[in-house]
Amino acid sequence: MIDIVSEAKKLQPDIVCWRRYLHQIPEVGLELPKTAAYVAERLKEIGIEYKTGVGVSGIVGIIKGEKPGKVIGLRADMDALAIKEEADISFIATNGNMHACGHDTHTAMLLGAAKILHENRDKIHGTIKLIFQPDEEGSHGAKAMIKDGVLENPKMDAVLGLHIGSIFKETGPGQISISYGRAMASFDKFNLKIKGHGCHGAMPNMGIDPVVMAGHVIIALQTIVSREMKPTHPAVVTIGKVHGGTAYNIIPDVVEIEGTFRAIDNEEREMIAKRIEEIAQGVTKAMRGSYEYDITWGAPPVVNDAEFTREFYETAKKVIGEENILEITEPTMGGEDMAYYLSEVPGTFFFLGGANPEKGPVYPHHNSKFIVDEDVFWKGTALLAQGAFDWLENNK
Questions:
Q1: Residues 27 and 154 both lie in one domain
Q2: Annotated active-site positions, please?
Q3: How far lies 20's CA from each of 103, 158, 222, 360, 383, in Å?
């Protein structure tokens, strides 16, 4: 057997070093040339076979155990956000982007797991795929990598991933939260263009006012959740942007509305999408206007496999102790494109507590001052490595 915990602890300084370098070169979207090059260099140093350019700038590493078995994927996202960093750290990013969601730590922790597993491949039954993914934030990276064949050659049988931070606030530093089913919601974006006919603000009867129509649409959209959804089923419809007009006394031709809707059930997700258009259509027709409607579909809900998660629970007990494992009873309405992998193969997505109020202020994800407790990194590495090793061992 491998003493993965001891090896992960020894790697802690390297994981921190890798993470801090990645933190200073944040890149956004599918094109991550510097980040991908750095990951490829580390894999080459370790001696791991890898392929670049999967899903534009994704990387897939392969660790072949010396004993036959199944294939498990370990996934980490690599992209950052277009946020100017204001965190109080010595390795702050200065290029206008920021790792404000911890993806730099995910990448570094997976590199640590890769090193441990590669150096102990003689004890492994099966194969580990290392999935370093771009553009989680835009929800394009997982789809792009799947399209480019990440699940094939060899065919992947299971998948494991993690997210650091304070998504579930009850998860203390170094603890984990797991879910045996739905853990996160779908996330989709919609655009509505409410179209009227502009005129002088003093003579509204000469035009068709899209501002008034937009107001009615916005209020009516809020009734989808409050009056059409089952009260015990969480869902969200949020308007994040409204734009229209150029002057106080001019009624414009158009008002644009942008928002998001979230659900934990795909049928309810589709119902919300349909109702947004029906409401826009009904309001604008009644008020002599018209509309345009567009959806940018994001990831579906994150749904963990119960049996895989039960096995992972036993793994986690060995790494961090049963007292440090919490169960998620209510999903977060945040989303993650890990959902695409979990829609194809069984697996689990767990949450590693990385916010530590004893070491400084705790800021939420996507905040310009977001920081994490680096002392928990070895635990993420150990959980990924032990999770892969144990699953292959138990399913040979």
A1: yes
A2: 79, 136
A3: 12, 30, 43, 18, 21
